[in-house]
Amino acid sequence: MEGGKLIIFSAPSGSGKTTIVRYLLEQPELNLAFSVSATSRPRRGKEKHGEHYYFMSVSEFKKHIKNDDFLEWEEVYRDNFYGTLKSEVERLWAEGKNVIFDIDVVGGLRIKKKFPKETLAVFVKPPSVDELKIRLKKRSTESEDKINMRIAKASVELATAPQFDKIIKNYDLDTALKEAHELVREFVGTPRLEKGEEKVSKK
Ligand code: 5GP
After folding, report:
1. What SMART domains is this protein classified in (predicted)?
2. Which domain holds residue 16?
């Protein structure tokens, strides 16, 4: 496998990494494309197959593991498998894109290990675990049990931050977006846009 750059954003669930990744995808000069992961977790809300995830059954997912189809995979929560298909990165590299990932810390570090030079691994740090709890409850897409599962995992994930190339503190969204943009721009080696050209949108 060879091609463009790999940009990883990892963080505990609710840290705001998805917002940052979406924002970066809107910046044309970065030439980014989103790596759609495979997952066995149920679809949430308006999520679409092939756009947010490739949704599949646990047995289908296990078949892909057996065939060595994954660059990395993880049972992030019990019976909820997530993984990056090799074919997904190959497809986007073939289109001449830099690939951006929104994945968990273990998967992110695995990709970094496989492609050390091609990868920029960024950890997004939330203000506190309490703030995470508030954000996840506000999102209200999951049951109390699932939220607690995500919170329990957050402390373990926070401890892995020093293993990443860069840490972005998401205490203030605008600041985090600008910092992320600058980091990625430097890494992919594209010139800075003139003042006023930068697109800022918060979703
Ligand atoms: P969610 O269920 O909220 O979409 O995602 C749960 C966690 O799984 C998040 O931390 C997300 O970043 C992570 N995740 C998503 N795709 C992948 C993947 O392909 N590999 C790994 N290791 N984690 C992933």
Report:
1. GuKc (SM00072)
2. 6-186
Q: What is the pLDDT of residue 201?
A: 45
**Structural domain total, the chain:** 1
CB 89 within 8 A of CB 71: yes
Say if residue 202's pLDDT is above 50.
no
Assess if residue 102 is contained within a domain: yes
Ligand 1 site-directed mutation target among 20, 104, 125, 150, most atoms within 8 Å of CB: 104
Could you tell me the pTM of the whole model? 0.86
What is the overall mean pLDDT for the chain? 90
- Residue 109's contacts (CB-CB under 8 Å, 6 or more residues apart) are 10, 121, 160, 163, 164
Does residue 1 lie in a domain region?
no
Asked if residue 22 is part of any domain, the answer here is yes
178: CATH = 3.40.50.300
Query: Tell me, what DSSP letter sits at residue 162?
Result: G
Assigned domain for 18 exists = yes
Q: Is the CB of 104 under 6 A from ligand 1?
A: yes
What confidence tens digit (pLDDT) does each residue in 139-196 have? 777 788 888 888 888 889 999 999 999 999 998 999 999 999 999 999 998 666 555 5
Which atom of ligand 1 approaches the CA of 41 most closely? 2
CA 122 to chain centroid, in Å, comes to: 9
> What is the maximum span of the chain, computed from C-alpha positions, in angstroms?
51
> Is 4 labelled as part of a ligand binding site?
no
